[in-house]
C-alpha cells in the first residue's frame, strides 16, 4: 500500500544530511544474522559484523511486516490509544498521516521480536523500505531489491511507496505490479546488495529529522533507569536547531525575493520605455516604406508611359489600382506591343484585360501590367 512522506525545502534536506552524517559513525544494519557496520573504502563498501552498540539502525526488509490501515479517528490522541491496544505486546513503529475527511491513514512496521535482543536500550530503528523510498523520492519507478536473505519489491511514486517481500503468493515483479496496480510503463530497476548500500546512505540524508522521532526505540531495564531528561533535551535541541535554521532560511528567501521584486519593477519600467520607442520607430519605418513604395510605382508608371509614346502608342488613359497599371490606347499591332512590353525587365506580367477592337487600321486595347516587384496576379 502507498505511504506518503512529508515534503521539505532544500535547506531542510541539507540539515538532514548533516544529522545523518553525524550519526553514520554509529550506523548499524540489522537482520536475523546479527548487526553489521559499513565503511567506505577506495575499493567500495567494507561490511563487517560487530557487537558494538549503535545509535541508528536500518532493519532489513525481511525482519518486519509493513501494514497500512485507515482509521475513522480524527483526534490524534485517541488514535494512538487505539494503536496501543491493537498492537499490544508487539515491537512496532507507526507513521500517522494528517487528518483527511475525518480519518487518518496509519502505516505500521511490526518488527520481529528476536531483534530486541540485538538492540541497545536507546536507538532509532528505521525500516529499510522507508529509507530506500526516501532515496527514490520524487521519482516514479519499481525496483527489485536483492539481498542474501531473499529479494523484495519496491514501488515508488513521488513521495509514496509500497513494498513486499518475495513469496509464493508474490514470486516475481509481474505479480507484485498486478497486486499493487503498478503500470507496465514504469521503469524497472534491479538493485544489487552493493548498490543498495549507496541508496540507503542517500535515503538517510533525505529523511526529515521530525520523522526520526516516530522510530525511537527504548527498552526499559530494571537495573538502569531510562534517562528521559537526557533524551528529551537531545530531541528538543535537535528540533530547535532544525526549526530555527528553517526559519532563518525562509527569512533569507523572503528578503531575497523582495530585492528581486524591486529589481524586476525597475527593469519592467525600462522595458516599457524601450517598447514605446520601438513602436514609434516602427510607425516611422512603415510610413517611410509606404512613401518609397508610392514613389517607386510612380516612376514605373512614367517609364511605361514613355515607352508607349516612343512606340507610337496613342494612350487614352492610365489607371493604377491594387498593384496593377491598366493602360488603354490604340496601336497598329496590339499583339506585338504586348510581346515587347512583357519582355521589359521591370515588367513581371502583362495581359489584355479586354478584347482588342480593330478600327481605322488601329487596335484599341486595354492592357493590365504588373511590375516585377509586385505580387498581384492579373486574371
Protein architecture, described:
The chain has 379 residues and is of the alpha+beta class. It folds into two domains: 3-226, no CATH class; 298-371, 2-Layer Sandwich (Gyrase A, domain 2), CATH 3.30.1360. Helices cover 39% and strands 30% of the residues. The chain is built from eight helices and 19 strands. The chain has helices at 10-23, 76-86, 128-135, 173-180, 193-204, 209-212, 228-310, 334-342, and strands at 3-4, 27-31, 34-41, 44-50, 56-59, 64-71, 92-96, 104-111, 122-127, 139-145, 152-158, 160-165, 188-191, 216-218, 314-321, 324-331, 347-352, 357-359, 362-371. The strands form four sheets. The protein has a six-stranded mixed β-sheet. A five-stranded mixed β-sheet has the order 1-12-11-10-13, with helices on both faces. Strands 15, 16, 17, 18 and 19 form a five-stranded antiparallel β-sheet that branches. The protein starts with a strand and ends in an 8-residue tail after the last strand.
Amino acid at each position: 500500500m502507498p505511504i506518503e512522506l512529508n515534503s521539505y525545502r532544500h535547506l531542510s534536506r541539507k540539515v538532514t544530511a548533516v544529522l545523518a552524517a553525524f550519526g553514520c559513525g554509529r550506523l548499524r544494519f540489522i537482520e536475523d544474522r546479527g548487526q553489521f557496520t559499513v565503511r567506505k573504502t577506495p575499493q567500495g563498501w567494507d561490511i563487517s559484523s560487530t557487537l558494538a552498540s549503535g545509535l541508528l539502525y536500518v532493519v532489513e526488509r525481511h525482519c518486519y511486516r509493513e501494514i497500512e490501515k485507515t482509521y475513522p479517528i480524527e483526534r490524534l490522541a485517541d488514535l494512538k490509544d487505539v494503536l496501543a491496544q491493537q498492537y499490544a505486546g508487539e515491537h512496532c513503529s507507526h507513521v500517522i498521516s494528517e487528518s483527511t475527511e475525518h480519518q487518518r491513514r496509519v502505516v505500521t512496521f511490526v518488527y520481529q521480536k528476536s531483534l530486541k535482543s540485538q538492540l541497545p536500550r536507546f536507538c532509532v530503528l528505521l525500516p529499510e523500505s522507508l529509507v530506500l523510498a526516501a532515496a527514490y523520492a520524487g521519482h516514479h519507478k519499481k525496483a527489485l531489491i536483492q539481498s542474501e536473505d531473499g529479494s523484495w519489491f519496491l514501488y515508488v511514486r513521488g513521495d509514496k511507496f509500497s513494498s513486499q517481500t518475495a513469496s509464493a503468493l508474490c514470486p516475481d515483479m509481474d505479480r507484485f505490479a498486478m497486486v499493487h496496480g503498478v503500470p507496465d510503463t514504469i521503469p524497472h530497476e534491479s538493485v544489487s546488495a552493493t548498490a543498495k548500500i549507496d541508496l540507503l546512505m542517500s535515503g538517510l540524508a533525505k529523511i526529515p529529522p521530525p520523522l526520526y522521532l516516530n522510530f525511537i526505540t527504548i527498552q526499559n531495564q530494571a537495573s538502569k533507569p531510562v534517562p528521559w531528561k537526557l533524551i528529551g533535551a537531545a530531541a528538543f535541541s535537535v528540533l530547535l536547531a532544525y526549526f530555527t535554521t528553517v526559519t532563518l532560511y525562509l527569512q533569507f528567501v523572503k528578503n531575497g525575493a523582495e530585492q528581486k521584486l524591486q529589481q524586476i519593477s525597475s527593469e519592467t519600467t525600462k522595458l516599457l520605455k524601450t517598447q514605446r520607442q520601438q513602436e514609434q520607430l516602427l510607425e516611422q519605418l512603415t510610413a517611410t516604406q509606404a512613401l518609397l513604395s508610392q514613389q517607386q510605382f510612380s516612376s514605373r508608371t512614367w517609364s511605361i508611359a514613355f515607352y508607349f509614346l516612343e512606340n507610337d502608342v496613342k494612350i487614352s488613359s492610365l489607371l493604377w489600382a491594387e498593384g496593377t497599371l491598366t493602360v488603354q490606347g490604340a496601336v497598329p499591332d496590339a499583339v506585338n506591343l504586348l510581346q515587347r512590353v512583357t519582355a521589359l525587365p521591370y515588367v513581371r506580367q502583362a495581359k489584355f484585360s479586354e478584347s482588342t477592337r480593330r478600327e481605322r487600321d488601329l487596335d484599341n486595347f486595354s492592357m493590365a501590367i504588373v511590375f516585377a516587384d509586385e505580387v498581384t496576379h492579373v486574371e
